[in-house]
Amino acid sequence: MNLLAKLEILAVTVNNEDNGIILETASNSQYYNHTSHPLTTLHPKDKNSTFLVKLEGPLSTPSQVQVLSKSLTIPILREGVGETSTANFCLISGAMKLNILSALAGSTFSATFVRINLSPKDLSANSIAPCLGSEIDPILPQNRATDADEVFLPKQGEYPVWYFFYGNLAMPETLIERLGLDESPTYQKAVVKGGILRTWGRGKYKALVDGDASARVEGWVYEVGSEEDEEMLRYYETDCYEVARCDICMVDVGEVIKGLVFRFVGDVD
Length: 269
Known about the structure:
Keywords: Transferase. Pfam families: GGACT. GO terms for molecular function: transferase activity. This protein is of the alpha+beta class. It folds into two domains: 3-115, no CATH class; 141-264, Gamma-glutamyl cyclotransferase-like (Hypothetical upf0131 protein ytfp). 16% of the residues lie in helices and 29% in strands. It is built from five helices and 13 strands. The protein has helices at 3-9, 62-69, 94-103, 172-179, 227-237; strands at 22-24, 31-33, 50-54, 77-81, 86-93, 113-115, 161-165, 188-193, 195-200, 205-210, 216-224, 241-250, 255-264. The strands form four sheets. The protein has a five-stranded mixed β-barrel with strand order 7-11-8-12-13. A hairpin with a 4-residue loop joins strand 4 (77-81) and strand 5 (86-93). The longest helix is centred in the last third of the chain and has 11 residues, at 227-237. It is globular and about 60 Å long. The protein starts with a helix and ends in a 5-residue tail after the last strand. The model is unreliable at 8-36 (pLDDT under 50).
């Protein structure tokens, strides 16, 4: 799926508090200008965020984005072709966004930023991290690679890969809608080790967080077949969650497998 299609289909969260933010929503695909003053300090929620900046005006090329953002390297280019339009973007960090806003202060040009509201996935090749469970310390020798041949599973780019679901993703209609499935998905009953269920958003959302070694959460396991499908699920869960390794017990067969889960990273109720 191309970039513009993702922006149209997914309810991408956009930072609409800054000057020069033009918001394109999934419901109407229109742009809306916001005219408050540009930021001079990095907003806390932008610190670890990634953004797309549209290539136009004084930001028409990746090289121009590099200069205004004070980046040491040329930003990654993302090309998108939608049904009715085309556009090019660069991937930038929150700090780069701040530098662009500062450079454009006083200008009549309004830059377009879109927050990439995506669950981070950074599975270490040298340790078990990140892994569900409060008693699992990836720094300890038993949780780190002792030689070049040792492999921690699942690997970063391994597909298909098993995911443990415990909330809305455990409902077939959610996967059918998000992944564009032609038939109902196949789940298997499962239990994940080392986690406990809490809530956030005043009880509106479920949050799986680290628990002790005896903690268990019941749910379902689903085999995600491709990186594209996984990315759609990461957009759905947003950056309020991160992808973590976990041990999953398949209830019907009694087998324990290495899989992944969306672990909540914010403040619980």
